[in-house]
Amino acid sequence: MEISALIELIKQHPAYQQQIMHHELLDARDGQFKSLESPLPVALSQLLEQRGIDNLFSHQVDSIEAVRNGNDLVVVTGTASGKTLCYNIPILETCLSDPQARALYLYPTKALAQDQLKGLLQLLTGVDDPLLNRPLDNWGQIPEQLPFKPGVYDGDTPTSQRRRIKAESNLVLSNPDMLHAAILPYHPKWARFFSNLQYVVLDEVHMYRGILGANVACVLRRLKRVCQHYGSNPQFLSTSATIANPGELVNKLIGRAPVVVDNDGSPRGRKHFILWNPSELGCDNLARASANDDAVWWMCEAIEQGGQTLAFTRTRQAAELISRYAQQRLFDNQSPHHNRICAYRGGYLPIERRAMEQDLFQGRIRGVASTNALELGVDVGSLDVTLLVHYPGTIASTWQQAGRSGRRNDESLSVLLAGNEPVDQYMIRNPEYFFSQSPEQAVVDPENPYVLANHLKAAAFELPLDDDGLTEFGECATPITDILHNNHELNHVADKYYFSGGQNPAHKISLRHMSDNTFSIVEISKDPDLPNKVIANVDAISAPELVYPEAVYLHHGETFFIRELDLEGRVAYAERQEMDYYTQAVLDSSVKIQHELESRPALPDTSLAFGEVDVSWKTISFKKIKFSTRENVGYGSVDIPAQNLPTTAFWFTPGQAISDAMQQASFKVSEGLCGLRNLVVVALPMLAMCDNRDISGVVDSKNLGTPTMIIYDRFPGGLGYSEQGYSRLTDLLELCEELVSNCQCDDGCPSCVGLPNLRPAIHSDPDLTRGYPIPDKHATSKLLQLILHTEASVGSAAEVLAASH
Amino acid sequence: MLSGETLSQLRAFSKNRRVDKNPPAPEGHRISTSSLPEGQFIKTPFGKHWQSTEPVIEQWDRLPKWLEKMARCKEFLARAEPDNRSNINNVFQSFIELFPDRIALLDLETCGFAGSVVFQAGIMLMQDRQLQLVQLLATDYSQEPSLLYQLRKLLRSIDVLVTFNGKSFDWPVIQDRCIMHRLDQSHPDLVNHMPTVHCDLLHHSRRHWKKMLPNCKLQTIETYVCDRHRAGDIPGRDIPSAYHNYVRSGDAWQMRSVLHHNALDLITSLEIAMKIACYETSMIATVPTTDRE
Questions:
Q1: Does B112 reside within a domain?
Q2: Of A413, A436, A459, at which residue does a domain stop?
Q3: Distance CA A9, CA A17 (A)
Q4: More confident of the two residues B238 and A420
Q5: Which domain holds residue B249?
Q6: In chain A, what residues touch B20 (CB-CB under 8 Å)?
Q7: Does residue A162 sit in the same domain as residue A105?
Q8: What is the complex's ipTM, to 2 decimals?
Q9: pLDDT per residue over A233-270, tens digit each?
Q10: Contacts of B240 in chain A (CB under 8 A)
């Protein structure tokens, strides 16, 4: 499509008031091709030709050669650059020459595994629409001379098919959670598979950072040990989105340095990147028009111009609202496209999601409003326009989402529509910063003692642990095993550690932040003879925020009234009713110090302690919001129990002298602490080797009666991150000071004191939430100076006192 | 999840993580067998394990009466018309024909469900011309391979394996644990010696007593059908922790209960098998074939 024409059209529109703050052009790039040192087997090149692939891009060739030479691999190239072939070609090549060879593909989500199975089947059968609901039937469609039997083995795989997949499938697609809890502990059932395992694929490896990363690193060490037991030593082939340190991340995860391939040789059409600031709303120049509304406007114009458009929203509710408003607007304009728009998000039933992906891929759907559920590699083809409704939170996500639009030979467009959040506003006012910022580091600590302790138990259950086995898990493994042994969680017999319990311990260990428990949303049948039907799922953490009684739940842009939330049965009962409003939960959250475990005098005139805290949040009431006008048309109260996260935290309180000194400099301690809290959330991950989503913090006076910064682990029981903050406070604060003093900004920016520390509000409409201002950088600098260099200030205060006497 | 004590020790460790000094590994445990019943350690190519052998009659005085009944069944079956014979479940035909020389009863005690250690196995089979109860015990986890090896070796001359729920539990567990310890790959003795018929009494008990009994658990049948009652038996769910305690402390008092429990399970299995065999034979002895169709 003509991108320039679309932009011109927007500029001509009566509602256009210079909202385009910046227009960046990213140049087109030609494809770089290369040939292999020795050609592919004929059977394989025929399969590729059948899918229209005659030549390989340079990065694909480099990857294949690296794998042929026995290396581990990480491929870091753009969306739609043909990353999948980088690992599939060498795997299929090996399987052709050795039908016994096996490959294990691990995807971070079940949806991705399904999507990749579809891709594999399309390649192997030449059929566009393989039967995904009956995976084993597909084997019949693969030409007989080709020894490929792909199968998904995850929680949804019917029991009747599991035995056959275990025994026969040579390309097994699964996820780390399944490997951890259901494959490794029962490895004798997979003996043949492990004996012949030659490749392990880790797709979207940038997802494995922080808590999930630490767990996955341990699971992979367990996998390597089991493989060794059966005499195999697989190569690890991975792909990653653009992050700062893909090679290091993979090295940490698999314990070996991979070859990094990042010379993207795929062609790219020219890309326009627009930073858009919704117009100011008259009188109060802080409030702006809704980014959602402007996204609807962009989406409708683009669709009318023939462009396929994807809007990324930060919340599920926003995805529903944008799709609903866009449908309405196109309907009012009598556009034929009004029924070719949908919302896409987590919680929809898998079968609906598969259908939408297919429709999107084949162009039947022209516009989608999606949460970051579509950010990962689900293949929906390349689109013309992506709209990023609000800043996605990280540079890596921004480019990942923007990369969803981009044709190989045609122009594409991405628009970042800023919200009211200070970060959004900062980005839009500082385009140089936005375009030059390098993507985030992915941090992972394979030796986190808490994570490792759990996995050492699981490993001992799988195979008795001896010294060689312990070495695989790193230096901390031996002391931790001793602790487990002392507490009878492992037994030591004849130089080996044995698990001393009956049940597979992996069942009780979750690899991720939150549990997998889900609530079903059930539509109450209007006809008493017909059964109720499940329309969607929602995770247990989000349910009380989304489907409380009397909530209006949005689903495919339609309104459902929630009659009842059954917390025990994990079901929300919904009735289809056409409403002219939706509801917005009002949350109350708090952090309560429960129990101080330890304290120490860290720095003069401050107090520091470590202990247990209880983080809780609950929906206390809701607002009714009228569609379109966003008027508040009423309230209701909600009476459901709070959700709790019992965890560990450290808390830090500046003393009276510092407080007085701050006041003299006309700063508030609490503002300085807020900025410091934001800095700590960035700095602590560097010391504690976690992701900044793994920790969180508040500044409050409720607990101790004076402003206190509380930093806690976002994992039940804690994982030692805040503990590192406690024992290394001075290092931490010095790092914060360095960050803030090296920052070039004037008053504070997202790189220093401004990064908002949000609990991801995944449901509500961001138009209705207020952003917090970026704290004053100078307050934080002054506070840090007072804390870290007190001798000087105390000294001068003493001199002042002496002088006055 | 980790226990509270483990967590607080981990915390202490974690805080000082950068200063890591590996404490010396403690010495292995000394296993005492002083209070196990009479038995001895057996050496195999895979190490050693503890084993005891005792004639079944020592534990069950009704055995001779049942052996007589079985002999009569066998005689009758040998004389029966082929058409008539076929009315007996063919697993039981084999059982009767090959009784007692080529049959064995098997029951395992493990540390839990799939994937956990097999630490004790009881086998009933003919040795020295009488029915013997052979009990194998791993006195620590490292003896499991030896136990499995011996078990497989004992089963070499067996054609009919009798278990209670062994099709879905005992037999797959043995196979998995052998694969895990890679026994087949490492020892030629073990290849191709598998019983050809597996008689899982759970299925046959359901066939006969499902409608009469509250359930078809072994102990239910023992109470209602065999009319025997256990006193002071160790409950199945306590067995794994009893074993872990034993390995840790070397104190075998609970192992005596486990071995007794295992012996009782096998005696009841034997009685159930013989009851069904005699019953099915008596059916063809009294009911003409035509009526059964």
A1: yes
A2: A436
A3: 13
A4: B238
A5: 35-200+227-285
A6: 475-476, 479
A7: yes
A8: 0.72
A9: 999 999 998 888 899 999 999 999 999 999 999 988 89
A10: 501-502
